[in-house]
Sequence to fold (348 residues):
Amino acid sequence: MRDAALHPSGAVCAYLRTVSRPSSSKKRSILPAFFPLLVSVMVLVPASAHPQCLDFAPPFKPLWHLEFCTQYEQFGCCDQKMDNVIAERYWDIIDQLDTRGEDLCEDLLKEVLCQECSPYAAHLFDAEDPYTPVRELPGLCSGFCSEFHGRCGHVVKYLTENRLLQDTSQRDASTFCSLVDLQDQDYCYPNVLQSSSLNSNLGRVAEDPRGCLQLCLTEVANNLRNPVLMLHSGDGTHRMFIAEQVGFVWVYLRDGSRLETPFLDLSGEVMTTGWLGDERGFLGMAFHPKYSENGRFFIYYSILVDSKLEEVRVSEMKASEHDVNVADPNSERYAERCLAVEEFLKRK
Fold:
């Protein structure tokens, strides 16, 4: 999510943010939840459809022309680099086949490989749940799958190392297709291309009569207790840090999974109550601009002094020198009451 602004109507609008290989035998060319945390992204399709790529990012229009998976060059999940990777893989497989096998399968093989560029790649490869493995083959509708099995069953061994898929590709089509089928038939290939409700507005921003942009929400975390912030450290690791009001800060990896050990546990220090809507607790966190070099970050939270005096504590801490995913519990430095917070933050 690159930027966010307040729409004149009051709605919060969030704005989001590419081949072939020559050989001596073939002419080819290469071109240069308790409380789930949600983030909003620009609606690129109606609310009933949720286009998403395998990296959990939204689809986009490539900056450069796609030479191989050209059907997705206006809107999809591949940039030119990924398009070249898919093309290389295609030609590597074709080179393994005799002329008859190549003639039988080359068009279907290309269609299957290019589904990674589809704006619905996450659906086709069942990648939306970070706790289940991504499919090695996209979900294929029964009719297309039967044709693919009859013409391309001999190439499955080049597409996947999954022994079950390899073995069933040599058996009857129904057995093989039961493994690559999708439960939601609207999203299997090629049905996903034929649904007007899914494709009519791809890549377009929808605006209702009142001038509000439609937004869709993507769940990035769940089973959290009053999450109060989500931020990244700017260190190039693509980790997200999510803090709970009760005093925990959790690390979420790029694939959406959460580390079992919290980055920070101040639950014994933070003052919280059971009152609904109480704003006391862990209140904020910020990483030093040079966090990747010095590991420093700043926090502030509610505390109870001598069991009766409520205060807000501002502290500096550092990440552990032994584990970047854990804060050093002994590194906390409090801001003295008589010291201006600005001066405290400037201290080295």
Summary: The longest strand covers residues 296-305. The chain has two domains: 16-32+43-199, 224-346. The chain is about 25% helix and 20% strand. The longest helix spans residues 80-94.
